[in-house]
Amino acid sequence: MTGIIDARLAELGITLPDAPAPAANYVPFVVAGDMVFISGQVSSDANGLRVGKVGAEVSLEEAQASARACGLALIAQLRKAAGGDLDRVAQVVKLTGFVNAVPDFGQHPAVVNGCSDLMVEVFGDKGRHARAAVGSGSLPFNVQVEIEGIFRLA
Description:
By secondary structure, the protein is an alpha+beta fold.
């Protein structure tokens, strides 16, 4: 039987990517009691890494799509951390988003909304969360966005 969140993903036409493997010496997530801490997920899609500097060669809309891609990777990691059952997610607690932007770019919150909006679309009120959106002079592999998350399981 399909779970409620899996049915919601299908209804939204969302197919989760495979949970990305770590790119260095760290684990993709840590489960501590009922909390899941997911390492930063970088912006990528079926075509590979989404790279570039937001506010220069990358538009706000492209960066929002990259933040959404980070959110999909977070949910894929979360599914793995929850033993395959996204219905165990009790709360999206906090997201921290990093935006690879030019110095005078000031719309970091609007970029990270690409991920925040996804969490609410998928999890409803359980997807509402605390958040930080931070500008960065560079990110690994020149990706546009990196987002980490903290979640609570039931």
